[in-house]
Amino acid sequence: MDSIESISTDINNIIEKSGLFLKMEEIAALEITDFGLDKFREQGLVIHTYVNTERCCAKELIILPHQTCPEHTHPTAGKVEGKEETFRCRFGRVSIFISGQVTEKLTTSLPKDIENFSVFHEVVLEKGDQLTLSPDSKHWFKAHTDGAVLSEFSTNSNDETDIFTNPKIRRESRLF
User: Known catalysed reaction(s) (predicted)?
Assistant: First the structure.
């Protein structure tokens, strides 16, 4: 089990290498989640939310080397359309997996618990690349060797309605 200090050091290193500037109070307020799986370095995510209103949301997603954000969907709920989101790679390299033709030659390894993943069309983003996902799009992503920072611009973010393929996931789970 990694110590909080070790994880914090790695997060701060990616923030520094990426050139992302966050105030001390923003760093202290980072959402650091392992999704309730107790394997943060394999499946986890660090999130800084700039704004989340009824109309829009802006976040920075900090992903450690080879770390995966588990497969999920931001679904339509009643009359509220699912989240539309655009990811822009600010640092590193990240593979985003979406519905579509399965990519035969992947640029990264698949997660160990492959039974909890069902979409395998790989889109690789490098610094300056971006991808927009329509509402209700199932997706997951994995950072490459250096980790990654993704900016996310979206419609309202409502974590409580997210649907994860892995039934063991608890989205509200935070490490510290």
Answer: D-lyxose = D-xylulose
- pLDDT reading at 150 higher than 60: yes
What does the pLDDT look like over 36-66, one tens digit per residue? 999 999 999 999 999 999 999 999 999 999 9
- Rg (the chain; Cα; Å): 15
CA–CA–CA angle 73, 149, 4 (5° rounding): 90
The domain 4-164 is classified under which CATH number: 3.20.20.480, 2.60.120.10, 2.40.30.110, 3.40.50.1820? 2.60.120.10
Q: What is the pTM of this model?
A: 0.95
Helix and strand totals (H; E) in the chain: 2, 9
Q: Where are the domains of the chain?
A: 4-164
Distances (CA, A) of 175 to 7, 37, 97, 128: 10, 11, 25, 30
Residue 106, φ and ψ in degrees, nearest 5 = -75, 155
